[in-house]
Each structure stands twice: as structure tokens, then as C-alpha cells.
Amino acid sequence: MRGIDLRQFRFNYDLTLALVAMNADGTVYTTYAGRDATGASSHQSTGSLAAVLADAMERHKSHKPRKPSTRPPTVVEELAWWKRDKREHKCFHCHMVHDAMQQEGRRLDRWTERDQFSWPDPMRVGLRLDRERQTEVAEVIKGSPAAKAGLRKGDRIVSIGGATPISFGDIQQVLQDAGWGPASVSVTWQRGSKPSRGTLRLPKGWRRPSPEEYAWRSMKWAMSPKPGFGGPPLTAEEKRRLGIAEESFAFRVKYIVTWGKSAETGRNARRAGIRKGTIVLSVAGKNDFRDMGHFHAWFRMTRRPGERVPIEVIQNETRKTLTMTTLP
């Protein structure tokens, strides 16, 4: 991302893949991007990409050139995080942009929870979009803002928030700009031959996802409080050998954070009795995590600084409960 204008190339920087179709004058025709917690390709396929690019080409054919912007670009090299860590000779990965922007916001006392939960999935408003026909509604969640607006399965979104989308990424960008709420977003859709209009009425905090939804995002690593330890989930065979129910989530501590700015979280875990090799059975009574990403997102999003968290473990073949007081 070195040298890339962050105001021009706007997309969810946590993604594995994002494609921007644009004119040389800076006009963006569409952004093919998006995923959910089920996998990096949940919203992407060769077929849908071909369809989106074909639509983008049609926009290109009718595009009227405009003068390129003379506005100076906003680049990662200008952020204090880059300068402090002296990353001049290292690759600046996409996901690092969120880290850099977060630290810049905290430095300027401008970072809030609203910024943490960026690029909301359309499921936040009750819309599940079709993977292949990206502006077609595959499902509407009962009682959601989309349902209340009148949208139904099979509808094709023609416009949203004043934009004419041709991809999942285009719709997500409108939601990104909608703010924390309360907010209202106009939407027009085609149902058969009949156009319909409605309004998505978004309540305050509508963008905040569940920990399971947020688990894949690399932005979670900067959140606090942090557990200070982690490791691989136990295999089915290991669970059987230890007498742990197969459906229960459990993991073996492989690392305790003793490096960087989070080193104190690892020392805090050690003070609570966590050691490498410790088997964690539950945290605050919860043992149904989908994976380790879910565990880390859940811990950061549901625990509070100063909270005493019970951790059920196996150490030296003995089950016990440790208690860890979380750090800010």
C-alpha cells in the first residue's frame, strides 16, 4: 500500500482480495470486494467477477472524461505509525492500513468504537446478497431494517444511498458511509417489472457485529482487553483422550505474549497461572467458540478492563479454574 492514495482506493483493507475498476481520470466504476466469516471467497467467484467487469465496461463506454483531481494523495507514509516504526524498506500490507489509521486516531484522540467496526456487512441491515448476482437479494432477515423497508428475496437493488451498485462492494461502501446511526438510507429495487422504493432506517450502533462475525478481521488484534495467550484447538482424538466432549471447544496454549507493546498482557496471563501447554476448556463459562479467531474477537469485544475472568483449564492432568484480571 505504499504510495497508494487512501482517499481514492477505498475498500475494506482486511480483505484477501479487492479489485477496483476505474478510469484513468480517477473515476471508480465499481469495487469488487467483500467476504464474511465463512471464508475469503464467500462473496466472490469467477462468474460474478466476470459479470461485474462486464457491467463496469458498459459504464466505461458511456463515461464522459473529467479532469483528474489535483488534490494531494493521502498515503500511509504520512502516518506517524509508519514513521515511528521506520518501515521505509518493508512491504506495507493492506491490513496494516487499519492498524496505522487506528493508532493515528488514538494519537490525535479521534478514534472511537465507531471507527473500529468499519465496512459493515449488508447482513447488518438484514440483507444477504447473492454471490453470483451481486445486487440480487438472496435473503431478508425477519424484523431487520431491510425487511421493514419492504425488501424481499429475489429483489434486485437498483440504487442505494444515491449510488447505482453493480457489486457487493458498491453496496457495502454505501453502508460504510452511512455512519454509526441513527441513519436513513434510501433504496430502490426491481421486483419483476415493478420498481419499488423504501428507506433503511438504521438504529444507533447498527454497525457493531457479533464476535463471530468479526472474528476474521485482523482489526481485532489491536482491541483490548487482550487475553495475552493462545494456541491451536485440540483435535478430536485429543479431546477423546482427555474426556472432553467432542462438541466443546478447547485449545492448548502454545504462546504467551511476551513481546512488543502487548508484553504486559502475557505477563498478566502468567501471573494468573497460564503456562505453555495449559489446556483451556472454557473462558467465563464459554466453550463454544468456532475457532481461535472467534475466541480472540469474543474476549476483546465482551470482556472489560479490570474484570475477573474465570478460566477452566487442565494442568498436569488436573482440572482447575484460574482467575485472570484483565488489563486496559
Entry keywords:
globular; single chain; Pdz3 Domain; 3 domains; 13 strands; 10 helices; four-stranded antiparallel β-sheet; 328 residues; three-stranded antiparallel β-sheet; alpha+beta
Report the total helices: 10
Radius of gyration: 23 Å
- Write the CATH fold name of the largest domain: Pdz3 Domain
Distance, first to last CA = 31 Å
How would you describe the oligomerization state of the chains in this entry? Answer: single chain
- Low-pLDDT runs of 5+ residues are none
Beta-strand content estimate: 15-25%
| CATH class assignment of the largest domain | Mainly Beta
Q: Estimate the global geometry from the Cα principal axes.
A: globular
Number of strands: 13
Q: What number of structural domains do the residues give? A: 3
Helix content bin: 25-40%
What about the largest sheet? 4 strands, antiparallel
Please list the strands of the largest sheet in the order they lie side by side: 9-11-12-13
Output the CATH homologous superfamily of the largest domain.
PDZ domain
Order of helices and strands: EEHHHHEEHEHEEHEHEEHEHEE
- Summarize model confidence as the mean pLDDT: 94
Named at the architecture level, the CATH assignment of the largest domain is Roll
Task: Report the structural category.
Answer: alpha+beta
